[in-house]
Sequence to fold (616 residues):
Amino acid sequence: MCGIVGYIGKQKASSIMLEGLKRLEYRGYDSAGLAVLQNDGVTVIKKIGRVDNLSAHAAKQKLSGHVGISHTRWATHGGVTDANAHPHVSSDGKIVLVHNGVIENYVAIKKFLLTKGYDFESETDTEVLCNLIAYHYAKEPENGEGTRLLDSVRKTLSHVEGTYGIAVVCTERPDEMVAARKGSPLILGVGDHEHIIASDVSAIISRTQNVVYLKDGELVHIAKGGFTISTLDLTDVSPVIDTVTWSVDDAELGDHDHYMLKEIFEQPAALENAMRGRFSADGSTANFGGLNLTAADFRQIDRFVFTSCGTGWHACLVAEHLIERYARIPVEVDYASEFRYRNAPLDRDALFFVISQSGETIDTLAALREAKRKGYKCMAICNVVGSTIARESDGGIYQHAGPEIGVASTKAFTSQLMISAMFALYVARMRDMSFADGVDYVNALKQVPAKVTRILQQADAIADIARRYAKYNDFLFLGRLSLFPIALEGALKLKEISYIHAEGYPAAEMKHGPIALISEECPSVFLVPKGELFNKVVSSMQEIKARKGRIIAIILEGCELPEGLADDVITIPDCHDAALPILATVPVQLLSYHIAVARGCDVDKPRNLAKSVTVE
Ligand code: G6P
Fold:
């Protein structure tokens, strides 16, 4: 969602904030703004459009102050206008605020503030919050301890329902900043004589790798070169300073045209990292230190429930297939947003899993909290270390895929598939899978990064195919069993970044409806398995061909399609079934990417989307 960067230190706040905003732009990008405290007042610049537009306007002003807050917006309350962009300034001109999240009782608070003489220039819930802080600040006496701003923010937040990550400054207190969170991620970077508040680490890693991950209900007060953390109910918190393991280079574009392409090419390394140190010494199973469950605990589990959103939900479907196939344990998959509200009956001995790249998606977090409330043990598969979901789960598996900046998930998805395959092996080896089959499985997974590299070597050929198909406005993606979720993922990627209508279907289901769409103008991408279903999928392809549909087939090396059946063929290396979804994903990523580029789309920042959705 929206991104926050706040700076307090010795450098020019505007330059550091603009750099941070640029790195956070993938979180939301309909407008951007900054405020710098200077000359006993505040300079605020906010503009619709991208951060570059804000930078151009900022360059025209003299912004020398060392304290400031800034924001990139993804609109929730109020349209995309300069006035609705953040920061917001209270009507008495003293309090300046940036906010992520949603204040649910803002209408009632606004009514109250109108009776107290506060004015509003925007339609946002944030301006209401800002004026409520100003109201409490005006009533709060100076207390000699320098906590007047902190106390007013704390009082304000005790009256607020909803979610927030906020950073607040005050024109009367030019050396202070207060930040707080509930339901929206916020971190504090602790640098050399400087502090940076941000909604994720990518905004701060060029300045420091020392971070404090704030928890829900915590406030941080930065003043006199130091900081303190306390809770809404006035308990002091001893800060834990973590070290970010990735560097600024990991989040740079390098020679690639887009982050998405860079991240597609980083998949061999991300897959290696998902496996690193996680196979047993005898090479027959996987180990996961972070699950905090013994083999005996696992023997008690009679069902897994996997939930997630978006691309992660497709990873859940692959996990379902692999666990049921290899470990013979039932798996239920649910959208996190549905699970939360449908009050699903769960088996007594179910183990709950969530999958989230960012670890901040609010629907997934809410599902995790709901399952925990019901007393279930909850595991998380997350990429972002220290994220809220990672911290609130009872155990989990970190992906170690490195930062993913492109809004359309690529390397995080295949890394989730690898972890799912390893987890299926882990539980299968506790049940019926033999030592020899375990060794074969492990060896097959170890070959995956090299096989992905071989597919990436075909990138130019796949780009040629993509350019020939870029003119079509409807696509079908068809697969079976573990390739059905990859068909869904292929369709989602294409929709997200090229705005082409695409649907993923089980190949055999195509004849029960989607076949009505088939014409020369609606191509199909077939993910063709080997083995017993090969001929069945070939029959589905014949049905398409008979109706003049164009076909791109993704097939395994060694499989032969009838002459002329597919218009274009992309081959992937032969592999173990557990690795098949990973390998089949790479061509659909490249197809979607190159189709979007050919159509002139902004691949890394598709319209209306945000990388991490922290509002319901
Ligand atoms: C957003 C993104 C999707 C992503 C989903 C879940 O909708 O646009 O690409 O798959 O959130 O994100 P998460 O970080 O929880 O995996």
